[in-house]
Write a structure and sequence with these properties.
The chain is an alpha+beta fold and 516 residues long. It has a domain at 49-126 and 170-207 and 301-341 and 377-504: Outer membrane efflux proteins (OEP), CATH 1.20.1600. 59% of the residues lie in helices and 12% in strands. It contains 14 helices and eight strands. It has helices at 10-14, 30-41, 66-70, 89-101, 103-124, 174-240, 246-253, 255-280, 285-288, 308-313, 317-338, 383-449, 455-489, 497-507, and strands spanning 17-20, 23-26, 74-75, 129-140, 155-168, 304-305, 343-355, 366-375. A four-stranded antiparallel sheet has the order 4-5-7-8, with no helix packed on it. Strands 1-2 form a two-stranded antiparallel ribbon. β1 and β2 form a beta hairpin.
Length: 516
Amino acid sequence: MLPDTTPRNTNALAHPDAAVNGQHLPSRHLFSALLACSLAMLPGCISMRGIEPQAKPVQASQLDLGNTVMSAAKIEWPTAAWWQDYHDAQLDALVARTISDNPDLKAAQARIGLAQAYADSMHAQTLPTLSGDTTMTREKFTELQFIPSPSAGHTDWNNRAALTLAYDLDLWGRQKGIWAAALDETHVSAAEMQQVRLELVNAVVRSYIRLAFEFQLHGIAEEHVHEVEHRVAIVRRARAAGLATELAVAEAEVPLPVARMKVQQIEARIALIQNQLAALSGQASGGGEKIHRPAMHYDASIGLPDQLPANLIGRRPDILASRWRIEASREYIASAKASFYPNINLLAFAGFQALGFGRLFSNAATIAGVGPAISLPIFDGGRRRANLSAQTASYDIAVEHYNASVLKALENISNQLVLLNANEREMKNAEEAMATAEKAHALSLRHYQAGLTNYEHVLVTHEVVLMQRETMVQLEADKLDAHAGLMLALGGGLNDDKASQAISDATKEGRAGSTP
């Protein structure tokens, strides 16, 4: 590196007035001069004309919710721990373990840290940077340039040690826009983590409901096996007494292996659900073997919370994530527009430079400089317009994704409400059928005890009771599952203080400090 032999006005560096073309410009007016220069160059900037977003967010309050939703009874919004309404300690423990140990949820939490780290790096781009560098180069100097004796024509050390300060003034907010967008992406990651949590908890609850249903079916199926065995025993005794044929015995035995096979099928399904619950809660299959028969019950009114559309937008994590994506896209558009304007960087350095080591850190070897670097986009082959078009399209995509999320949420709520209402009507009919079947069975048993009929008729009416009981169990499971689906559709109590703490903790830094 060649030594700096340009004459310097040390007074200009030491005093507030810097010499420019023989004139003195006060340093306090430097920023004003730079700004005026930038504004003067604006007419030469590349045009962004004709690039505007087209999509508009849907107004949920103006949507036609339909009679099913509008006529629903009013209930409270679900709490963060909505699954505790099933009153099952084993379920509570499984959900707690899922929240703490599920790998997918841990990965979603890690993505929040990744997004926050990126936001921090974008914040750093808005701040001045100070760096130090030292170079020591052994080189042979030419005799035909401005190299002083005795170094000219000889080999010597060319040494430099300096501090460099750089600061992008970001007059139009390009870097601040990227930082703001990165903070919004952090909010997106936090909302997505909450959505993963909600879906995992919902999967655990609904699998647990299926497990309870299968255990109940298992009890009914075993009772049916005992009934068939009893019937076979009666026919065999009748055959031994000469009151029945071998054909009657064979016909009575036909349902027995089928009934036993049904029990085995249910046991296999129970084992599969136990394995699924173990995996969801971050355990190996051995953990599933420790899950016992559920003892859950739920008795709640069918209905929807008040002010559904407006509150839903602030409670469903997927809708919140979509809203933050819109905000991030809006900031990216602002940043892309700012790149069309002149960019001004301030650069300054101070240090030492000398040939050889003897006088490197002396007054004679000091170097210093300060000044602006101004860049103006004049022609870039359409790169900035293409970037703005891409960011605008991304905004339109984010808006339409938000619109789809709102419509999907309302569809899910309406669907679950339809299922709950239908289940309530079916349950009334099933209860009537169950009462009739039990009455018929009681009458047949009374007639048998009075000697008016045989025990075969008692077994037939009891089989009808078992069939109706299975229908009741299925309807009860459907009701619990539809309730869990409604909790998922409503956002699972996100705006409850405890539930929203995850998002608050992940995003409390950023905009709270200063507005981008």
